[in-house]
Amino acid sequence: xxxxxxxxxxxxxxxxxxxxxxxxxxxxxxxxxxxxxxxxxxxxxxxxxxxxxxxxxxxxxxxxxxxxxxxxxxxxxx
Length: 78
Description:
The chain is of the alpha+beta class. Helix content is 24%, strand content 38%.
């Protein structure tokens, strides 16, 4: 049985989860309405870098997710 483990978060800015050795970055965005969680699964090099230096390794990715959210998986808040 797999369990989703929270690795880090800054409320309403980013959330990082690990499940089955896969690390997922979730960025909440309020627009377009009704709001979405933008989801990205880290590749191996991003995962290693995140585990080594923390959230600083993902700052550019978070910025891109906020701007180019349609390029990522989006889960509606509704």
